User: What shape does this take?
Amino acid sequence: MKLKHTHINISLFSLGCFILLLGCSTTKQLEFAKEKSNTISLGAIVKKEGALKNNVEIKGVPDLDQKIRVSVIEKEFTKASFSKYVRIFDTQKPSIEFDDTTENKPTYFEIELIDDIGYASSINNDVTSREYVKNSKKAGVVSKIVMVSKSAVSFENMTSAFLEEIENQYVVNVYNNEELLATLSFSEIVVFDYQISFFCYGKNQRNQVVIMDIVEEGKSCKRPLERKAEKLETIKKLIDY
Assistant: This one.
């Protein structure tokens, strides 16, 4: 089953769409409805077009066969970060107010994939996702989101957090040891910045070309891993011959 080709130019000036995660037997599709509030899913597979950061095409989200550890960092708004936040509201008034002269400033959160190997393993086990990213030179993943929550949420007693798939939807579950403290739905947050990472390929024990890691945009894969699967496929064919 092919991934749905929904081309959008995601601009931080008008992140005006709402992602619905639809379950299916392979890779879930992303549908976009034009709303003023918008989320972009951590872990979503994208196609990056050109040098502009925001010119990406959402392809879908892979089925997760395991929990993927993420980091959650709380930061105070600065003039620069608040400027990015304000832009997504277009003509609407932001729900957060910022005064650089006050001591207690509002905060936001950065949530980032840190179990790169676990995420890569999930894609390798999802045939549709694996074949798409292997055959697309521009395929990447949303590896970090910068966001505020629409409702009150506390990470004060958090010991770990994971990206999980619950009832065909991605959520971030926050734990204190084994106790579930909170579930963060992507429909309940406002994303105002994000980071794209790309895939690194290597060969497993069966000499198969698989995804082994992800790396931030602008960085190189650690040797002997390659950014392009076709390089390893060519070597494999020569050896087999």
In short: The chain has one domain: 6-240. The first helix runs from residue 79 to 87.
